[in-house]
Amino acid sequence: MVVRTEDRLVLHPDVALRPERFGALAYHFGNRRLSFLKHPDLVAVVEALDGERTVGEAFDRVGVAESRRPAFLTALGTLSASEMVRAA
Question: Is the whole model's pTM more than 0.90, yes or no?
């Protein structure tokens, strides 16, 4: 799935995040998938996705630089495809 900055996403209710030194592990209890969030900034963005603010607003809140946003959008697209995050 392609994620855009104007999308509104939330962490899937069946997903739990476990903090790790590198970022976090995301486990989906429904489909039993495990994903590695390999940077603390990505974890902060995922935690900021509340369905009320857009992805771009979450980037602003966390302080993600413009130059890093394309990589974060790609990561969020991967998380969306694996059902870790979903449209609000």
Answer: yes
